[in-house]
Amino acid sequence: MMNSFFFGGNKPGSFRLFRLLLHLPNFVKLTWRLFVDERVPIYRKAILILAELLAVIFAVAYLVNPLDFDFIPIFGRIDDLLIGAFVILVPGAWLFIRLSPEDIVREHVERISRGE
Fold it and tell me: Is 12 a residue whose pLDDT tops 60?
């Protein structure tokens, strides 16, 4: 199941955001495992750190921005939470996973799927 999520088995029209939310704990585990794995080159780990640093700066700028979307009934209540969580976590981690050696990513995905 996770293999198809990370390696392009997505069906057209599927709910990617919902699927990402379901896999978020495993996504975090995979990112951490790859980050501490000595086989992943250090320059790829630097990409993760740089991307996350930029994402944090963007998230802080968004959160202190005086413009808020509270006038939109549902979005106004959850926009800060969603923007903060996804901007900080997803872009850098996703890029880091995609740029990591595929065999190492597959190994960690299989271990996470087995519950190791």
Answer: no
